[in-house]
Write a sequence for this structure.
């Protein structure tokens, strides 16, 4: 009992049986153990915590010294889902409790002009907790012109982005991520990105919904859509996803995808 707790009247102690007090103490101890077990499980550094399949990210980071790989196959197009395909990866490394570094991009991208590697980039996420339920982050990224511009596989220049993130857990097991910030920095007029995504899980299964919008800019036309996906935690360190995107703006592509996120565990002592 803390020093700030009110003192229990002595007469109440006298009329309470020792058996009742022991039962109360045992109940409190069991409840505390269950709470600690749940907290430990939720905070296990080996648990996969995917940023995919949404365009938004969350405000959390891979545990320090740990690595996690996200990868997915997608098909998309305005007229046909066969217009373009890609194998996208996002390899994340935990630097500290408040920082994460990632290498990302399409290792293979196929479009009307041919196939090959796309533009590969790096991202740095700086994060913090506002409360037990709410966290914020700031993500900066920069891509290199590794994709062949003539084949339509790259931008032909380095492109940057800055994104602010708010993540919060609501009652009823609902999780929300809000993202906003300029994209396509370095190409001219930036594209402004906004996203609201929500997720709900029951046991190992979950559902994710997202509404996103990239305004028109020098790096590309407006791109907006509604995303829906199902997720399945196969084991604590691996999460699979599958879903699609329905375009919400003229010229925006529809999309189908499948993906897998794998936490490799500690890679740096």
């Amino acid at each position: 009992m803390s020093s700030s707790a009110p003192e229990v009247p002595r007469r109440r102690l006298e009329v309470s049986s020792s058996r009742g007090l022991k039962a109360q103490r045992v109940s409190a101890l069991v409840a505390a153990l269950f709470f600690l077990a749940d907290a430990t499980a939720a905070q296990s550094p080996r648990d996969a915590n995917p940023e995919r399949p949404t365009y938004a990210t969350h405000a959390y980071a891979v545990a320090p010294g740990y690595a996690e790989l996200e990868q997915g196959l997608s098909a998309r197009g305005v007229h046909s889902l066969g217009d373009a395909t890609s194998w996208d990866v996002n390899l994340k490394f935990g630097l500290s409790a408040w920082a994460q570094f990632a290498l990302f991009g399409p290792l293979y991208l196929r479009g009307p002009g041919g196939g090959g590697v796309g533009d590969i980039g790096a991202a740095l996420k700086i994060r913090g907790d506002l409360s037990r339920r709410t966290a914020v982050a700031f993500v900066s990224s920069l891509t290199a012109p590794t994709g062949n511009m003539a084949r339509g596989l790259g931008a032909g220049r380095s492109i940057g982005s800055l994104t602010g993130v708010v993540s919060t857990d609501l009652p009823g097991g609902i999780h929300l991520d809000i993202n906003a910030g300029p994209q396509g920095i370095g190409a001219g007029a930036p594209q402004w990105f906004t996203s609201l995504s929500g997720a709900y899980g029951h046991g190992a299964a979950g559902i994710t919904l997202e509404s996103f919008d990239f305004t028109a800019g020098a790096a590309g036309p407006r791109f907006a859509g509604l995303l829906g996906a199902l997720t399945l935690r196969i084991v604590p360190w691996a999460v699979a996803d599958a879903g699609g995107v329905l375009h919400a703006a003229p010229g925006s592509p529809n999309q189908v995808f499948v993906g897998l996120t794998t936490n490799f565990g500690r890679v740096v002592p």
